[in-house]
Amino acid sequence: MSDTIDNAFVPTKKSAPDGFRHGDDLAKDHAHQHDHPRGWRRWLYATNHKDIGTLYLWFSLVMLMSGGALAMLIRLELFQPGLQFFQPEFYNQMVTMHGLVMIFGAIMPSFVGFANWMIPLQIGASDMAFARMNNFSFWLLPPAALLLIGSFFAGGGATASGWTLYPPLSIQMGPGMDMAIFAIHLMGISSIMGAINIITTILNMRAPGMTLMKMPMFSWTWLITAYLLIAVMPVLSGAVTMLLTDRHFGTSFFNAAAGGDPIMFQHIFWFFGHPEVYIMILPAFGIISEVVPTFSRKPLFGYASMVYAAASIAIISFIVWAHHMFATGMPITGQLFFMYATMLVAVPTGVKVFNWVATMWRGALTFEAPMLFAIGFIWVFTIGGFSGLILAVTPIDIQVHDTYYVVAHFHYVLVAGSLFAIFTGFYYWAPKWTGHMVNQKRAAFHFWNSLVWVNVTFFPMHFLGLAGMPRRYVDYSTQFTDYNQLTTIGALLFGLTQVYFVFAIVLPTIRGGALAPAKPWEGAEGLEWTVPSPAPFHTFEKPPVVA
């Protein structure tokens, strides 16, 4: 197998995969790297999709480390029962900010970074459709992050209402809550502008001959995700605006004492919140759908069914929101509807898992870092999917609602799911971004440690939840000590593994390493592999023609 892996790094002499032809010689096309800005101006005024993609990726990495540091502090506190380091108020602030930072600061911006980098390369576009709006949509994020992190230092500290911001707690919080609301507004505006840009780019700027049903799966999943963002981000903005007016302007949308309805907030929030889950996983599906065929040396099994499955997931995601609310009291017909609708999501998701496995079946597999993480993703994401199916069953959900079983479920989906897919995409496209190959031994060390410790961290949480341990509590009964200690050890080692990823893999790959050919992976297909590595500043000055 080592021979096969080594051979994957041999520069190929083919200028392009079959099916793509170019009007002029590639060298001429990519000689025009003059006139782009240098130094800080290049980044502050960035309009090139690659530079903006890089900014998104660096931002998300910083936020991942920030949210991870909060997670480490949370787990240290939970190593033993009783209060160890933090008062309950501050503990709840950390739990809330960990969720907000990871979702809005780490996972979502990293996928937007992938979209900015790869969609124009994949569809043969010269850039994103609205270059200056692209720049603005990124630069809204650092002030939003400063508002979020800075809320710890506001009077009364950060919001401690949980990342879901449920009233009445969120109405009673101090100024840190207002900072979180404004941060969410900024991030929402950024997401909507990014989504408009992606939709316009994909629909209007594809290379001649690239029909929608010839597009790479990553571009397809992002097109669907962008429509989801436009549909649900205004809903979240509306919900937090109503919170703001309840807090400061005398309205009573959610204030029960004045005739408002706090349950209404949950309905509005989860009408955003459940499609949001798929916003964070559909681009991951796209990345896995690129990597598995490459390292199986086979076309993706059931391409059309993968497209329809992704669209089906997006559509169904709008009719399942109240499965988060079974415990609030709901008519039996409502419970049955949301239970069956939630189970229905398993069908298109199962289609995707089946197609990935079918793609690998009898393929000429090699196990470089992107494929390791892709297979790891399929396995651990499936565990998260099954626990989600269990939570869809109303009587079970009412029993384990707000216990660690739920924490286990969504961390399997978002850490072992979204984050593993982000690592997959990094290892797959880093040669195209940096011009250097990633050290495969270090990458394998990163993978195996991530896979082991993510399971050691989150699998015991299923047992804690089934035994009745509630989440978001700083203290717990002594009967839960052993599993909590195991989880804390796993979390600390998983966190150290990601520090290793930054300092032993990301930074050395940027600085140097073996030079990457235009097509570093033997089985790779697509327009992005027809341009040099690193991809030049101006990519397709003359559109390639897809045969």
UniProtKB/TrEMBL annotation:
Entry's localization field: Cell membrane; Membrane
Catalytic activity: 4 Fe(II)-[cytochrome c] + O2 + 8 H(+)(in) = 4 Fe(III)-[cytochrome c] + 2 H2O + 4 H(+)(out)
One Gene Ontology cellular component annotation held by this UniProt entry: respiratory chain complex IV
Pfam families with a match to the protein in the record: COX1 (PF00115)
Origin superkingdom: Bacteria
InterPro entries per record: Cyt_c_oxase-like_su1_dom, Cyt_c_oxase-like_su1_sf, Cyt_C_Oxase_1, Cyt_c_Oxase_su1_BS, Cyt_c_oxase_su1_dom, Cyt_c_oxidase_su1_bac
EC number: 7.1.1.9
Cytochrome oxidase subunit I profile domain ranges (all copies): 43-547
GO molecular function terms listed in the Swiss-Prot or TrEMBL record: cytochrome-c oxidase activity; heme binding; metal ion binding; oxidoreductase activity
Parts of the chain that traverse the membrane: 55-74, 94-117, 138-159, 179-199, 220-244, 264-288, 300-324, 336-357, 369-390, 410-430, 451-469, 489-510
Membrane topology: Multi-pass membrane protein
Compositional bias segments (type: Basic and acidic residues): 15-33
Biological pathway: Energy metabolism; oxidative phosphorylation
Stretches the record annotates as Disordered: 1-33
Family statement drawn from the similarity comment of this UniProt entry: Belongs to the heme-copper respiratory oxidase family.
Function: Cytochrome c oxidase is the component of the respiratory chain that catalyzes the reduction of oxygen to water. Subunits 1-3 form the functional core of the enzyme complex. CO I is the catalytic subunit of the enzyme. Electrons originating in cytochrome c are transferred via the copper A center of subunit 2 and heme A of subunit 1 to the bimetallic center formed by heme A3 and copper B.
Name this protein carries in UniProt: Cytochrome c oxidase subunit 1
Source organism: Duganella phyllosphaerae
UniProt lineage: Bacteria, Pseudomonadati, Pseudomonadota, Betaproteobacteria, Burkholderiales
